[in-house]
Amino acid sequence: MASEKRIVEYKGASGGWGSLRGISSALLSERDGLAAIGELMRQNKPRGFMCVSCAWAKPADYHAFEFCENGAKATLWELTSRRCTPEFFAQHSVTELRGWADYDLEQTGRLTHPMRYDAPKDRYVPCSWDEAFAAIGAELKSLDPKSVIFYSSGRASLESSYLYALFARLYGHNNLPDSSNMCHETTSAALKKLIGVGVGTCIYEDLADADAMFFFGQNTGSNSPRLLHPLQDAARRGVPIITFNPIREKGLEVFVNPQNPTEMLTGKETRISTQYYQVKPGGDIAAMMGLCKYVLAADEAAKAEGKRVLDADFIERHTHGFDEFAAKVRATEWAEIEAASGLRRSDLEAAGAVYARASRVIGFYGMGLTQHVHGFENVAMLVNLLMLRGNIGRDGAGLAPVRGHSNVQGQRTVGITEKPQLVPLDKYAAQFGFEPPREKGMNTVEACEGILSGKVKAFIGLGGNFVRAIPEREAMEKAWTRMRLTVQVATKLNHSHLVNGEAAYLLPCIGRTEEDIQASGPQAVTMEDSFSTIHGSLARHKPASPDLRSEIAIVAGLAKATLAPNPKVKWDEWVGDYSLIRDEIAKTYPDEFHDLNARMFAPGGFYRGNKARERIWKTESGKAAFTTPATLSATGFDDAPGRYRLITLRSNDQFNTTIYGFSDRLRGVEGTRQVLLMNPAEIERAGLKEGQMVSLVSDAGDGVHRQAGPLKVTPFKLPDGCLGAYYPEMNPLVALSHHDRESKTPAAKSVPVRIVA
Ligand SMILES: Nc1nc2c(c(=O)[nH]1)N[C@H]1C(S)=C(S)[C@@H](COP(=O)(O)OP(=O)(O)OC[C@H]3O[C@@H](n4cnc5c(=O)[nH]c(N)nc54)[C@H](O)[C@@H]3O)O[C@H]1N2
Ligand SMILES: Nc1nc2c(c(=O)[nH]1)N[C@H]1C(S)=C(S)[C@@H](COP(=O)(O)OP(=O)(O)OC[C@H]3O[C@@H](n4cnc5c(=O)[nH]c(N)nc54)[C@H](O)[C@@H]3O)O[C@H]1N2
Ligand SMILES: [Mo]
Fold first, then answer.
1. How confident is residue 260, by pLDDT bands cut at 50, 70 and 90?
2. pLDDT the model gives residue 2
3. Centroid of chain to Cα 358
4. Ligand 2 atom closest to 751 (CA)
5. Which residues, judged by CB distance below 6 Å to any ligand atom, belong to the binding site of ligand 2?
6. Which pLDDT score, from 0 to 100, does residue 131 have?
7. Average confidence (pLDDT) over 256-279
8. 152 CA → ligand 2 middle, Å
9. pLDDT for 422-437, tens place per residue?
10. CA end-to-end span of the chain
11. Residue 491 DSSP symbol
């Protein structure tokens, strides 16, 4: 494993030769690397397969290599030649494997056989698919459906997600938490309430029309690198790009396009952000308050000359709540704004001036806004800011939440949600002849609470690594093993499979990069990207093992073993021909998915539409809402001596809980993930030395001891009062109660901690 540990400032740009080296080292570590290169050429192209990494758009005018360093790594990771076989499980007890690092578990390669936990042997042993389905079905039949959780991680296709949600409701619950609950749930909740749709309002073409772009807390270079191409185009057109982020992320500073030979040979860099502001974590409400304050003042000044800076017509016709909001902005002093944001008035005015001059502005954001106790207010402030100048529902402008998992947005669109009011239950009732449960189900935090209290008896995971991804890890791991049943559908072994319930099954599935042959021939699946655009995905690589099944076949197998037969619910036919599932999706969601089968391979995908983009507001009031924030700080706790705001970070060498390696190249952190990033003055104030090993403890004030470490103190350019360290290693520090007030998204970007030397 990683031996050399060093921290050096990365002098290169994002992209460039570094990204190619990242891909080639991933290729070289694979025996059949060359076959995998052939697959990469089909990635994100019409009639190819859609990347399993992030949800960024797949344009119609694609590049020769329409993949990035991290998309390539994700593909190669799935197409690995390593195998995690029954022989492996025979050699290692579950207790032993529980002590392995995430990295080492995933290095064992692809799961090959369905496995059952054998308690006396403390081992996973092989079982047949029929045995597994029958046993799980018998368990589920004996349990109260309301005590069972059906989790999904955002990779599953629209088809498998739709069937999974249908299974849950036929069985009798809405307990459908998904990874979105830890991610952009803040977006879904806030945008639904404020503008009537739970998703962003931009489409790909807007990127070419915008004349200013604002970035809040989204790390493009690592997490959605293909977005760097349109950003590079925008930068070259002279479009100002303004970034608010506590960390100076390389991808938002400079980029060398690895697809461009001249740039690669000359090393010609494009500067991405024209203005970069290192806002304090949790300081965005204040920063945006500053921008709004500038805009209102500029409007007052313009009025004197008979002009306006505000889009008064938009505000009048399309919104409510403006007067109260404007009064709050005027009453908020610059001194308060500077203190809460950590930014200077002059800087905020300079950014405000860019905003006020531009006529088409896109607001991009990621986890830096959503994962806070007042994440809702963060998103609401961005809505406020954009609405001041009518930047929603206009070409070249709008809200662009950059989604995480490749189909996380789509899962919500086809019914994976604990909120029954978001699902057309009457249509389900008519289509499948049953009475769907109407009671609200559990989201991720509520599922965790239920597992802790013993109310939840069984957990089915359609992908993901739940136990690693959630807060409060220690208490959760203990409670987890008290469950009666845990079932994990997965491609690779991870820690969540090893903290099993009394009865436990590991069901290995084929991945999206692999060929899926059923009764009617090769099958395609569909997904939705961040811009509400739907893409078909067709893979042809041979599956990792002949004993794998598709997620759809697994969901159907579980459902058939659990539910009474229903002539309208045709599991076998659906498994035989996925186009029949798409017909059902089109019936349940006709506006979005009519003619899904005919449209799914349209080059660049098809757009499923968005009412807010048309300025039709599906809100309670029929208008879009301004929100008057009750606080300027999103952290949800007060500053105190010795208390820091911890940002939990993703490196450039991981996909969530999957650790590809130990090189966070773009931040210059190499060889280790056990680092504590803090600025040099802060290191000195804390009486620490560079390189010293320390631990972090929770400062949530609830009396619970939570600890993580040891971590090496590492100087890094961060604002005062905050620390950076990696997710998922830091998850034991996050209290389960530390989440966004509205959506319950865990507040992983400002965790209150103390340092213990
Ligand atoms: N390679 C790779 N790609 C991925 C993933 C991955 O792990 N690896 N994960 C996928 C998933 S599921 C998701 S959700 C996305 C996540 O992608 P992002 O939304 O980019 O999420 P993070 O990397 O967690 O953090 C984003 C940024 O927020 C900044 N930040 C932290 N606190 C604040 C704050 O208070 N204010 C502001 N303005 N900024 C702040 C951090 O410095 C960081 O640059 O990426 C997806 N794509
Ligand atoms: N502290 C902190 N915590 C966080 C975050 C943070 O920024 N900070 N981020 C949060 C976010 S944004 C998210 S999305 C969650 C992520 O939470 P999850 O989605 O639960 O976690 P992943 O690591 O994406 O899941 C990886 C596993 O999925 C399985 N898998 C991969 N591909 C497939 C497939 O095609 N099918 C199936 N069935 N299984 C597959 C593999 O077994 C792999 O080990 O974590 C959240 N937790
Ligand atoms: Mo995510």
1. confident
2. 35
3. 30
4. 1
5. 153, 155, 179, 182-183, 367, 371, 404-405, 462-466, 469, 489-492, 494, 509, 511-512, 551, 648, 656-658, 727-728, 730-731, 734, 748
6. 98
7. 82
8. 9
9. 999 999 999 999 999 9
10. 27
11. S
CATH architecture of 185-402: 3-Layer(aba) Sandwich (3.40)
Q: Is the pLDDT confidence value at 22 over 80?
A: no
CATH of region 85-183+407-593, choose from 3.40.140.20, 3.40.50.740, 3.30.420.130, 3.40.449.10: 3.40.50.740
Report the pLDDT value the prediction gives residue 348, as an integer from 0 to 100. 98
pLDDT tens-digit map of 698-737: 999 999 999 999 999 999 999 999 999 999 999 999 999 9
Reported as a pLDDT band with limits 50, 70 and 90, residue 24 is low
Residue given tokens 């579950």 in the structure block: 94
Domain coordinates of the chain in residue numbers? Answer: 6-78, 85-183+407-593, 185-402, 644-756
- Quick one: fold of 644-756? Barwin-like endoglucanases (2.40.40)
**Ligand 1: which of 67, 223, 405 to mutate, judged by most atoms within 8 Å of the beta carbon?**
223
DSSP 669: E
- Amino acid occupying residue 387: M
Burial class (CB in 10 A: 0-12, 13-18, 19+), 435: exposed
How many angstroms does the Cα of residue 666 sit away from the middle of ligand 1?
14
Cβ atoms 339, 348 nearer than 8 A: no
- pLDDT on residue 27: 63
Band of pLDDT at residue 245, cut at 50, 70 and 90: very high
Give the phi and the psi of residue 374 in degrees, each rounded to 5.
-110, 45
Nearest atom within ligand 2 for CA of residue 551: 38
* Strand blocks (E) in 236-321: 241-244, 254-256, 270-271, 275-277, 319-320
Q: Which atom of ligand 1 is nearest to the CA of 652?
A: 1
